[in-house]
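Appendix C: a fully annotated inverse folding record. The material below is reproduced so that readers can follow the format used throughout the book. The structure is listed first as tokens, followed by the designed sequence.
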């Protein structure tokens, strides 16, 4: 059975793109200490390990949550410092965030190696590919920031026709594989039918799609290679503050939250999940990028 990656983007309820401009960030209370232990208890109950891409602002504010994630055997990854997109940060701003995150993790965790990065809002694209050499420079082994399609209803992210399964990413064109590349990419899960791609990566897609549809799509994907799903702590937190948003933003942010944990537990009955670094190690041990004609082991993970 294919082993897939379970991931969580550890940001607070006010960080998402659709929310933060409507919140007074100088006077806001975080919910991470209430929401993250809920998922840690659920994972312990089912014996599942996962990868937590932690936002630096959250780690600085709640370092004990980061230590708890590490103590319980989960992988820690980087989600940036401020939840600003790569395009908003620019190259120098991103370099500073990587350095600040590295310093913060050393302060909190000591020598724990951070292997993976996920850009806020999947904002790695053709315009922000300058981020890839910086990730390598700071010692990252893999990235998980590409949404391999352009979605009509969501123009915030996406690279059309990028590979759908883990591959060695090209620094010249992140939508293509470089067989000699030094950095792995684990793109978001999309089902492909008749040349069309449909997102089933997690987040809003897990929340609003009927469970049988979501599960069937993942089954189809897993026949081809490993996938990952992602969620945010505010998506299962019953205490997430509800603020006034436009109708479409309110639907995208708050729909389906009450069923998230139930759906996740049902997925545990059907699929095998593990940390993202372990899933990628399985790919490396096979000596190939999934679906690629190029085979070459990579010792970096």
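Designed amino acids, in order:
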């Amino acid at each position: 059975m294919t082993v897939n990656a379970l991931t969580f983007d550890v940001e607070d309820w006010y960080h998402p793109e659709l929310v933060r401009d409507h919140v007074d960030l100088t006077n806001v209370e975080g919910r991470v200490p209430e929401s993250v232990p809920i998922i840690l208890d659920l994972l312990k109950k089912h014996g599942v390990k996962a990868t937590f891409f932690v936002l630096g602002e959250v780690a600085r504010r709640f370092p004990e949550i980061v230590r708890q994630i590490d103590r319980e055997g989960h992988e820690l990854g980087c989600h940036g410092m401020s939840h600003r997109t790569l395009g908003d940060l620019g190259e120098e701003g991103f370099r500073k965030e990587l350095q600040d995150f590295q310093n913060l993790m050393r302060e909190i965790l000591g020598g724990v190696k951070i292997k993976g990065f996920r850009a806020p809002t999947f904002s790695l694209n053709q315009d922000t590919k300058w981020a890839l050499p910086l990730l390598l420079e700071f010692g990252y082994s893999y990235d998980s920031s590409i949404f391999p399609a352009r979605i009509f209803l969501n123009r915030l992210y996406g690279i059309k026709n990028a590979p759908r399964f883990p591959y060695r990413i090209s620094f010249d064109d992140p939508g293509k594989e470089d067989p000699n590349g030094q950095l792995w990419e684990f793109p978001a899960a999309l089902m492909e039918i008749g040349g069309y791609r449909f997102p089933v990566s997690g987040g809003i897609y897990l929340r609003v799609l009927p469970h049988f549809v979501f599960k069937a799509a993942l089954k189809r994907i897993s026949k081809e290679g490993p996938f990952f799903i992602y969620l945010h702590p505010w998506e299962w937190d019953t205490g997430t503050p509800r603020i006034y948003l436009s109708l479409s933003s309110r639907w995208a942010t708050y729909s389906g939250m009450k069923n998230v944990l139930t759906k996740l537990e049902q997925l545990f009955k059907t699929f095998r999940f593990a940390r993202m670094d372990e899933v990628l190690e399985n790919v490396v041990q096979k000596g190939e990028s999934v679906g690629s004609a190029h085979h070459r082991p990579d010792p970096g993970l």
